[in-house]
Amino acid sequence: MRRVTKIAAASIASAALAFTATACGESSTESGGQDKGVGLAFDVGGRDDHSFNESAARGVDKAKKELGVDAKMMTAKNNETEADREQRLSQLAEAGYNPVIGVGFNYEKSITKVAKDFPDTTFGVVDAVAKGKNIDSMVFSEHEGSYLAGVAAALKTKTDKVGFIGGTQNALIRKFEAGFIQGVKETKKDVKVVPEYLYPNNDKGFNDPAAAKAKAKGMLDRDIDVIYTAAGQSGAGSVESIAKKKGAWAIGVDSDQYLQPGLAQYKESILTSMMKNVDVAVFDLIKSVEEGKPLTGTNAYLLKDGGVRLAKSGGNIDDIMPQIEEAKEKIISGEIKVDEQPKG
Amino acid sequence: MKEQPRQQTAVADRPPRKKIDKDKLLLAVAAPVLAIVAALAITSVIFLTTGDDPFRAFSIMVDYGSKSDSQVVIINKAIPYFLSALAVAIGFRMNLFNIGVDGQYRIAAFFAAVVGGALALPGFLQIAVVMIVAMLVGAVWSGIAGLLKTTRGVSEVISTIMLNSIAAAIIGYFLHEGRLAVRDGNLIHTEPIPEAAHFFSIPTQEDPVNGFIVVAVVVGFLYWYLLGRTRFGFDLRTVGRSEEAARASGVGVKRMVVTSMVLSGVVAGLVGMPTLLGESYNYGTDFPTGIGFTGIAIALLGRNNAVGMALGALLWGFLERTGGRLEFEGYAQEIVGVMQGVIVLCVVIAYELVRRYGLKAQQRKVGEQLAAEARTDKAEVSA
């Protein structure tokens, strides 16, 4: 009888498989829709990460207010596969959202694929260059902005030791690291820079505040007194650790973290933030679609365009502004060339 | 199906067992049904407490999950999950808790991708080489844990979880521009595997089904055959039940520990292959992680039974696919994670309850029989 049960189970399973494999029934992508507004797919961490995603969300909020468009926002999970990202984007596109924006370079491949299936929808991808004639690729010069953060860190450290915490060791975050190190070294070459990462290659680095908290604590214990954290939502953990030590400074990333309500209790420890104006890029795209002239191709947001800049909220860098402005002018004029990847 | 007539006559030859077997069948069906009903009830309560309508949610899931393109995605998702569950189950069957499948499949896929990207052999040969490399690396990685257990008594739970971190660090080191990887915008990945060595796929009217499903089915069959029908499988399960008894009957326990860890690693090595050979063609920073842990849940769900695990893997794929839809419809995306957890818990609890109930029923039956026999004996004596 045991064998009969097994055979029955096996035949049910194979019947189910045969049914699925023949793929009868209708497809979920058949239904179309009207113009519903903006569809935004976040990277891990979600809207309230006080950093990268939030910057994109601000662009959408601005468009809601000024252009009167509707929006739908969805969030990525950890351990996702290409299929999950494709599903998210095509659901938005098929429901009639236009433009559909993927926040984060993980969407590069899925945007390229889905954009082909929906030629009448404009797609946008942040931090990646995706090929396709209906795709707006929004890229930023994080290394240039991080150089300025490095200048600020070098001028503010009292122990001559500064730290960098990256969420995940990938090419994008190494761009932050490269600019930061160069900025520190070219301002004061005796200052030691300690770059460390939360995870070697796991996007959990962007939503693991506990790990960042421990990492920052470790750095503070080694007398490092200025820490630049480029780790999305995890950055909040780093700020929390730093706020406990008097005289130590945190440098935020992507959004102006001094103004983040969620970080208000630690804001006195936030020196500045390297703002990456994803909101500007996102708003530009939405506006262009609303006006019927959608942006496509690669659009770079550089230091000279205000695509990246240092936040001045709190006035903690007011005293060193002359040096920062000087470095900024040199980068814009081309006198300083900032590396995109760390040396060695 | 050929087996059936013989089975029926076998049952007919032994009429007294027929009833017990019917009960057994009932119990076997009762456990999963009980689990699913309980899981549905609990998730309904969760939906209600968050102020959502559970029935609308379930109907969205069924509706969306049965769409033809969803079916293809579900099958493609289920393939690596099933392989991962098999790898975990090999350990489970002899009481080894291989948490390291996650690290094993990742490091295996990484080095297989490196080798695959460096070679340009004829397609078929190259696929074979890539798969063999993956299985070898997986075997080495799990074998370390096996050796540590047998030579130094280190619990495999500890060693495999540490080996996961070491695997991640090794991949992190080599996955760098100029080491074993190339940079492509912000993505870093190994050299792509040439087109000739891409695995075949089964076309449907939607996206194609990954051809690796064939390998998965073969491995599933081998698992069933090897563990259920061979001397080796018997020894392995014996060690799982009782090391002392196995040793007493002449089974080399240490050798079995290492062998089954290695076998588990071999299968783990295959977990990354459907993605590597059928989808991404390279190992990059975006290579899926965490499938090893999903495998643990599915092995529990499928009770280490090949068919059960296949169904569990499909269920998992279904939940993930439809979970994305739930978020789109305005439900919290975490709800699917909660559902998956609830289902695994319900299954474990339901099987235990049913097992105990079955045991009690059997005891009662035997008791009644003995009582009846005692009565007839007494009657005979008094007569």
From TrEMBL, chain A:
Membrane topology summary: Lipid-anchor
Keyword Signal on entry: yes
InterPro entries the record matches: BMP_lipoprotein, Peripla_BP_I, PnrA-like
Domain named ABC transporter substrate-binding protein PnrA-like: residues: 41-341
Signal peptide range: 1-23
Main location: membrane
UniProt subcellular location: Cell membrane
Keywords attached to this entry: Cell membrane, Lipoprotein, Membrane, Signal
PROSITE patterns: PROKAR_LIPOPROTEIN (PS51257)
Listed PANTHER family: ABC TRANSPORTER GUANOSINE-BINDING PROTEIN NUPN, TRANSCRIPTIONAL ACTIVATOR PROTEIN MED
Recorded family membership: Belongs to the BMP lipoprotein family.
This protein's name: BMP family ABC transporter substrate-binding protein
